[in-house]
Each structure stands twice: as structure tokens, then as C-alpha cells.
Amino acid sequence: MLVEERRWLTAQEFTDVFGLCNLLPGPNTLNITIVVGSRFHGWRGALVGVAGLLSLPLTVALLLAALFAHVGTMPGFAAVLRGVGAAVAGLVLATGIKMAASLGRTPRALGFLIVTVVAIALLRWPLVPILLALIPLSVLVAWIRRA
Amino acid sequence: MNPLGSLALRFAMLSLVAVGGMQSVLPEVHRVVVDVNHWMTDAQFTQAYTIAQAAPGPNMLVVTIIGWHVAGLPGALVATGALITPCCMLTFTVSRVWQRFHGAAWRQAVERGLAPVTVGLILATGWLLARGASTGWPAMVLTAVTAGLVTFTRVNPLWLFTAGAVLGVAGLI
After folding, report:
1. Is there a contact between A2 and A14 (Cβ–Cβ < 8 Å)?
2. 8 Å CB contact between B53 and B45
3. Which of A51, A120, A131, B47 fits a disulfide with B124 by CB distance 3.0 to 4.6 angstroms?
4. Are B65 and B48 in contact (CB under 8 A)?
């Protein structure tokens, strides 16, 4: 939409913005909105963009949250959620597997992947200190091994 | 500390390390909500995620549902606000100076360094959701079959969700 319909960005600019937004923390759609919004209208543009992106889904999420609080314990609804939940877990695992397959097959990538999964999923260590240790290390190794 | 303050503080901190999107911090949200504070059970966490997945919009809104579960409407708003505000402000700040670093060599190292950690976090999220969903072997089989089919075929996941709903109603999961 940004590139083809509105021509707010060239394809090259979009790739650049997209790369940046994937590096920064937070959902990339939200980050893209902020970068583009602020480029055109400063902080007001960013704020309006975020409000536009989130207001409808947030309203729906609030309604669902209220609903979940009331009917989440109802046997029929809970049964459906249990079943779908098992499939959703599989979907998330598949996303991870496909992304893992697209990583370069280097000992570095595999090593950091395994350490992350073991520390976070199996050992249940707190995320923040783990990331503060792992990310600089991983970036450093990638920097040293750059071709 | 009361749940609201605790939610705000924890989620605001997580916001700044959510590299690769909110899915990356879900294992930590799970740890805080289920393991440390016992605000939800393992199964409720997976249910909340399932609902967020079904809703339109970014599935980070799972934290809205978790916030509501912990402290009602204020909890939902505080949880969502705490999780998006810091990363938004960071993006806003960085985007102003970014163009100066266009095409810098270290950018590629950062991208390549972040990738395996981000993927590891998504796999960890999948693992924890699967744990919360596993009510017995039929649930585990459905999780494994979904993971396999979605990885290796182009099947629409909606079919597998439907299968899950049917199995759930039939009392098998």
C-alpha cells in the first residue's frame, strides 16, 4: 500500500525502512507506521499512524478479553479453545521451523538458536539478562565472521 | 507491588527487548504471568494466545487479554500501553538518525546476529504454547501434525484449527 497505491515511499526506501523496523524491538508493522508517519508529519504523524493501526484491533481485543473473562470457563467454549489451541501451538512451531531453515547453515546460527531455545523454553531463565548477553555476543561473532 | 504496577514495569522493560516482534517476549510474559505470579495457568495462557490469534490485527494484543485477566479493563489498557509505548518511542527516536547510517557495514552484522536469537525465541514460544495445550496425547499429536503440515505443505492452517475445534468439542482434546 505504501509503495504501490500511495507512492509515499519508493521500493528502495521501503526495503530500507523494513530492514530498520525488523532490527528495532516491537512489532514491525507498528515500527513501519512510526517511521513513515514521523517522516511526513513528525511526532503527530507517528501518533496518528499508531492510533489508526491499533484502535480497531485494540477494541476487538478488549471485547474478546471481556468475553473470555465471562465465557472462557463455559464448557463448550473452553473445549473449542483447547482444540484450536493445540493447532495454534503447532502453527507457531512451524513458523519457527521455517524461519530456522532460512537461516544460514553456519555453526554460529545453529549454536545461538539452540542456546536461546534451551535457556528460554527449557530452563525458563529470565529473558532480559539472557538477551543482553546473547545478542551482543551473536552480533560480535557475526561481525568477526563477515565474509 | 500491586498487579497493575508490576505489569506496567515488567512489560515496559520487555518492550525494549522485543526484537523480532512481540512473539519474542511471549516466553517472558509466560514466565511472569504463569510461573512467577500465578496470574494464569499454563492452559489459560495458551487459550488467551489462541483468542488473540483468531482476532484481526497484530497478535501482540494477546497482552491485552492477559492484562484484562489480571486486573480487568485497567489491566488491559496498562498492559497494552506498557508494551507498546517504549518501543514506539525508541523507533521514533532512531528513525530520525537512521538515514545517516544508511548501508553501514555493521548493520548487516546486527541483522545476522539477531536472526538466530529471534528464531530461537519463536521456537520457545511454540514450545510453551504446546505445553499449555497438551491435555493428553491427542492434543500433542494435533500440535505435531499441524507443525509438520504447515512446515512442509501449503495447507491452510484454518483446516487444522477446524479439526482442533471438532476434536475439542468431541471431548478428545
Report:
1. yes
2. no
3. A120
4. yes
| H helices present in chain A, as ranges | 11-23, 28-71, 75-102, 107-117, 127-144
Distance of CA A1 to the CA centre of its chain: 20
- Band (B8; pLDDT cuts 50, 70, 90): very high
Interface check A89 vs B, CB under 8 A: yes
Cβ of B120 within 8 Å of Cβ of A116? The answer is yes
Q: pLDDT per residue over A22-76, tens digit each?
A: 788 888 888 889 988 888 888 888 889 888 888 888 888 888 888 877 776 677 8
Domain that holds residue A42: 1-71
Q: What is chain A's alpha carbon radius of gyration, rounded to the nearest angstrom?
A: 20
Residue A79: inside a domain: no
Closest CA to B173 of A78, A9, A95, A90: A78
Residue A4 lies inside a defined structural domain of this protein: yes
**Dist. CA B160–CA A96, nearest whole Å:** 18
pLDDT tens sequence across A70-122? 776 677 888 888 899 999 999 999 999 999 998 878 899 999 999 999 999 99
Yes or no: say if A116 and B124 are a contact pair by the CB < 8 Å rule: yes
Q: What length is written for chain B?
A: 173
3-state secondary structure of B29: helix
Structural domain includes residue A134: no
Cross-chain residue pair B113–A124, CB shorter than 8 Å: no
The pTM score is 0.86
Domain boundaries, given as residue ranges, for chain B: 3-104
Contacts of A147 (CB under 8 A, 6+ apart): none
Tell me whether residue A58 is in a domain. yes
